[in-house]
Amino acid sequence: MALMKIRRQGRSLAVTLNAETLREAHLKEGDLVRPTVENGRVVLDPVTVMPGVRPHVLEIGRRIIQEERRLLQRLAEYDPKKP
Questions:
Q1: What is the CATH number of the domain that holds 30?
Q2: Would strands 12-15 and 41-47 be described as parallel, antiparallel, or unpaired?
Q3: Which end of the chain is more exposed for a tag (fewer CB within 10 A), N or C?
Q4: In a domain, 1, yes or no
Q5: What digits encode the pLDDT tens for the residues 14-71?
Q6: Does residue 82 fall inside a structural domain?
C-alpha cells in the first residue's frame, strides 16, 4: 500500500485516499465515515445514512436516544389497552 501524506486543507488536515484503498474499503466519493482511534491507529468506519437525512440530525437523534433510553423503553412497552 502506498504512503500518503497529511496535508493542510483550509484550517484542517487531510489525507487523500487513492482509488485502490477506496475500492478495497468499499468506499466512494460522498460516503460518510466515522473516525476513531484504536491503539494509536486511525480507523474510518462507514456510516449508513437514510436518504434525505442529514448526518448532524442523525447525531442529535442518537444523543437523545442515549440520554432518554429508559423513557423510550417505557413508552415502547406501554399498552393503553392494558388495565
A1: 2.10.260.10
A2: unpaired
A3: C
A4: no
A5: 999 999 999 999 998 888 888 999 999 999 999 877 666 677 787 888 889 999 999 9
A6: no
d(CA 38, CA 58): 24
User: Checking phi first, is residue 77 left (phi over 0); if not, alpha (psi -120 to 50) or beta?
Assistant: alpha
DSSP secondary structure letter of residue 36: E
> Rounded CA gap, 67 and 61, in Å?
10
Closest CA to 4 of 14, 75, 39: 14
- Strand, coil or helix: 22: helix
Range of the structural domain that residue 42 is part of: 6-77
Give the DSSP H/E element, type plus range, for residue 41.
Answer: strand 41-47
